[in-house]
């Protein structure tokens, strides 16, 4: 069963394919290595035919271009769809921003204000005081409404019955298994089968 080498471990290396298929026979010298890169394009087998020159060739070329232009003007000509980018999908950092050129700012001269007389200051102080009084009245009314709502919520919480809650979760509250009883009786009663 055991053979020497067998492709594993020691021994000389053997080729995994038949050399004769490649075109190299036994004892033939291997081709020399290539030191230059392969050419970019293979050599042309057939040369292209030169374009016909003269008036007839130019006429045919102009006629061909005119036909192509007319075909593009027809409604049946399908133009390639330009992909529309949905910029809403991208975050702000990746969106392309179009910066607008800043126009020359024109300065607007405002007329200078005359300093207010002390009478105006007294009037503004009185207005501010009246506004503060009105605001205090509004806030006091809002505070009273909030207190009433809080009292209602407290009454609702008191109405909550704990006994009803316990009845709903009676099984879960009474059941507790910490695993101490598992397999403890098997030593005492060896006659019984445990499932």
Detailed description of the structure:
It is built from 5 helices and no strands. It has helices spanning 19-22, 55-73, 118-159, 162-168, 170-174.
Features:
195 residues; mainly alpha; 39% helix
Q: Report the span from N to C terminus.
A: 52 Å
Poorly predicted segments = none
User: What gyration radius follows from the Cα positions, in whole Å?
Assistant: 49 Å
How many beta-strand segments?
0
Helix content: 25-40%
SSE run: HHHHH
Shape: flat
Oligomeric state of the chains?
Answer: single chain
Give the mean pLDDT.
76
Q: What does the largest sheet look like?
A: none
Strand content: under 5%
Total helical segments:
5
SSE blueprint:
Elements: H1 19-22, H2 55-73, H3 118-159, H4 162-168, H5 170-174
Put the structure in a nutshell.
By secondary structure, the chain is mostly helical. Helix content is 39%, strand content 0%. The chain starts with 18 loop residues before the first helix and ends in a 21-residue tail after the last helix.
């Amino acid at each position: 069963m055991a053979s020497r080498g067998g492709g594993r471990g020691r021994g000389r290396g053997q080729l995994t394919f038949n050399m004769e298929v490649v075109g190299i026979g036994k004892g033939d010298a291997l081709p020399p290595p290539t030191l230059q890169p392969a050419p970019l394009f293979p050599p042309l087998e057939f040369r292209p035919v030169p374009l016909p020159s003269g008036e007839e060739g130019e006429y045919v070329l102009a006629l061909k271009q005119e036909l192509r232009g007319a075909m593009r003007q027809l409604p049946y000509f399908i133009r390639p769809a330009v992909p529309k980018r949905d910029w809403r999908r991208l975050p702000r950092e990746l969106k392309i921003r179009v910066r607008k050129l800043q126009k020359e700012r024109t300065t607007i001269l405002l007329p200078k204000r005359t300093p207010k007389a002390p009478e105006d200051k007294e009037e503004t102080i009185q207005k501010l005081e009246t506004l503060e009084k009105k605001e205090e009245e509004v806030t006091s009314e809002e505070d009273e409404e909030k207190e009433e709502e809080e009292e209602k919520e407290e009454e609702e919480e008191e109405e909550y019955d704990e006994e009803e809650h316990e009845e709903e979760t009676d099984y879960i509250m009474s059941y507790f298994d910490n695993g101490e009883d598992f397999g403890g009786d098997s030593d005492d009663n060896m006659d019984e089968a445990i499932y």
